[in-house]
Amino acid sequence: MTQIINHQSNYQKLPELVKTLINNNPLYQENLDRQEMIEVIDRNFNPVVVPDVNSISQEELMKRIKRILSLHLVSGMLNDLTPEEMKIFDESVKRGG
User: Fold this and answer.
1) Which of 86, 39, 91 is nearest to 65 (CA)?
2) Which of 25, 45, 63, 74 sits between 20 and 30 A of 16, alpha carbons compared?
């Protein structure tokens, strides 16, 4: 007898989780490309890299994806700095504040 599986693998859920997070955050919507972020998440959670992703709860996956999106958001903001602003930023980071 064949079992019907209603369970969708977490690998298959990743794009939907990314879309949900981006759709619910105006900063992500304005500053991140949805398709690019889906590709980034797919690479980060590749079965070769993270073979046990299906053992991670959806809540934990959401937290991890949110951290990656936030990192890309912040790193993208640095691209908008002028050379002078970047120098000030670098000096501030070196001083620790």
Assistant:
1) 39
2) 74
User: Which residues make Cβ contacts (< 8 Å) with residue 84, sequence separation at least 6?
Assistant: none
pLDDT of 89 strictly over 50: yes
Residue pLDDT, tens place only, 12-33: 889 999 999 999 999 999 999 9
Distances (CA, A) of 30 to 49, 77, 87: 30, 12, 26
> 């073979």: which residue's tokens?
51
Task: Give residues with Cβ within 8 angstroms of 61, minimum separation 6.
Answer: 10, 13, 14, 17, 53
Decide: helix, strand or coil at residue 29. Answer: helix
Quote the tokens at residue 96: 């620790």
Please report how many Cα atoms fall inside a 13 Å half-sphere around the Cα of residue 70, on the Cβ side: 6
3: tokens are: 């079992």
